[in-house]
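Section handout, structural biology tutorial.
Before the tutorial, make sure you can parse a SMILES string by hand: atoms, branches in parentheses, ring closures as digits. In the record below the ligand is zinc ion, and the chain has 226 residues. In the tutorial you will relate the predicted structure tokens back to the input. Do not try to memorize them.
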Amino acid sequence: MDKPTLDITFEISLSKKMMSIDQFPSRLLEDAVNEFARLPGIGRKTALRLVLHLLRQETDEVRRFSNTIIQLKENILYCKSCNNISDSEICNICSNPARDQETICVVENIRDVMAIENTHQYRGIYHVLGAIISPMDGIGPEDLKFNILEKKIKNQQVTELILALSTTMEGDTTNFYLYKKFNEFTIKITTLARGVSIGDELEYADEVTLGRSIINRTPFQNSFSL
Ligand SMILES: [Zn+2]
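Predicted structure of the complex:
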């Protein structure tokens, strides 16, 4: 029972001594903190707390932790049909015969797929762009991944395209770009209902609101002719 007390004392004295967290008693500790601090949203103090937490774990637990990350990076696949993250060449959604393969919901990233799936209101499939047009960040139309989508549309495998990008300027620009690109084909192009506030990012919208905005989707041209 003495050990945790010692650890806590060590942590407190460490953080008091190093308010700027730039003087480490160990090079190994510093390297680990530097790696954690490179993650988004993790400051150096949080990084130190996480590293000290791992240090208290059994070696096997830490090994499992790091192996999981390596396995993820080395073995993850991107669905050849929709670009969603997958454990196989074609993801669970695209390979599900119960899903409507001709209705495609275009989203920016995998988190958006997860948010829409959580609503249990959508039975079509997805297309993950991987980015949205953002001139400020140097991201242009050529950075969007939509070759497979374009091929499906040209091969008349699509009846409805739902543009479900965030309601930011970048999202709107990308929606409009895709609309202009695919409007010449005989497909229905819709977008999420905006009467309800879905917030800037799909992943932060609550399930009921997001579900409702999918069910009540509107023709895309109505969204900019107002
Ligand atoms: Zn897929």
